[in-house]
């Protein structure tokens, strides 16, 4: 049996009383390296308009399930609404400007090593990073939006079950791979539908 892509996963909850944010983070160990990702649901956060800009070394996928969010990503302003996805590449600045009262979104943050260590072909990471550098927002079709919603839900559920299920980490890697493939497909379809 080849164990090249099986990792031990620890789930922990980060709670910062200063900003009332609750984040589930998973640290995956592979060959002694820590590879982490986190899933944040907006219902678990206390959001404020005009939050301070932040720059992180990780990549992130923001999916708007309901309402509207306006943010600045690397000096460009974006207004996102229901069903839209934003892919944040590593080392860019993000600032939340405003959001509707009914907004609901999810954010999946991950270090690029998480994707590579999980067996995801590096070409997919390079493709989505190159496309998102210029066009970080995608509006998926109805089927892709439904698929993304289910994959986010499954990632959240599996994240909670990974300590109980021995193969939970491997399942997380596979679900994440499917999510990235859906995003690559959506980005490519948007480019084909709207050539410059």
Give a short synopsis of this structure.
This protein has 196 residues and is of the alpha+beta class.
Strand and helix map with partners:
Blueprint: E1 8-16, E2 21-30, E3 33-41, E4 54-55, E5 59-66, E6 68-73, E7 76-81, E8 85-88, E9 93-99, E10 104-110, H1 112-117, H2 122-134, E11 137-138, H3 142-161, H4 168-193
Antiparallel strand pairs: 1-2, 2-3, 3-10, 4-9, 5-8, 5-10, 6-7, 6-9, 8-11
Question: What does this protein structure show overall?
Answer:
The protein has helices at 112-117, 122-134, 142-161, 168-193; strands at residues 8-16, 21-30, 33-41, 54-55, 59-66, 68-73, 76-81, 85-88, 93-99, 104-110, 137-138. With 196 residues, the protein is an alpha+beta fold. The protein has one domain (9-193): Jelly Rolls. It has a seven-stranded antiparallel sheet with strand order 1-2-3-10-5-8-11. Helix 2 (122-134) packs across helix 4 (168-193) and helix 3 (142-161) packs antiparallel against helix 4 (168-193). The longest helix has 26 residues, at 168-193. It starts with 7 loop residues before the first strand and ends with a helix.
The global form is: globular
Mean pLDDT: 72
Proportion of residues in helical segments: 25-40%
> In the CATH hierarchy, what is the class?
Mainly Beta
CATH topology: Jelly Rolls
Q: Could you tell me the strand content as a percent range?
A: 35-45%
Could you give me the name of the CATH homologous superfamily?
Jelly Rolls
Per DSSP, the total helix count is: 4
Q: Do you know the CATH architecture?
A: Sandwich
Report low-confidence residues grouped into runs of 5 or more.
Answer: 1-35
Question: Which strand order do you get reading across the main beta sheet?
Answer: 1-2-3-10-5-8-11
Based on DSSP secondary structure assignment, what is the total number of beta strands?
11
**Main sheet record:** 7 strands, antiparallel
Rg from alpha-carbon coordinates: 16 Å
- Structural class computed from helices and strand pairing: alpha+beta
- Helix/strand order: EEEEEEEEEEHHEHH
What's the number of structural domains?
Answer: 1
Alpha-carbon distance between the termini?
Answer: 48 Å
């Amino acid at each position: 049996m080849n164990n090249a892509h099986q990792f031990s996963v620890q789930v922990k909850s980060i709670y910062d009383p200063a900003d009332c944010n609750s984040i589930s983070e998973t640290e995956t160990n592979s060959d002694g390296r820590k590879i982490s990702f986190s899933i944040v649901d907006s219902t678990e956060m206390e959001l404020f308009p005009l939050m301070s800009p932040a720059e992180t070394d990780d990549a992130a996928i923001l999916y708007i399930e309901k309402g509207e969010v306006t943010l600045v990503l690397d000096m460009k302003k974006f207004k996102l609404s229901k069903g839209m996805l934003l892919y944040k590449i590593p080392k860019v600045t993000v600032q939340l400007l405003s959001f509707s009262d009914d907004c609901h979104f999810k954010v999946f943050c991950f270090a690029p090593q998480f994707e590579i260590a999980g067996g995801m072909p590096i070409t997919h990471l390079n493709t989505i990073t190159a496309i998102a550098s210029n066009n970080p927002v995608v509006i998926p079709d109805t089927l892709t939006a439904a698929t993304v919603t289910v994959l986010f839900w499954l990632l959240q559920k599996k994240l909670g079950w990974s300590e109980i299920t021995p193969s939970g980490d491997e399942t997380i890697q596979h679900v994440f791979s499917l999510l990235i493939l859906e995003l690559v497909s959506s980005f490519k379809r948007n480019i084909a539908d709207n050539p410059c």
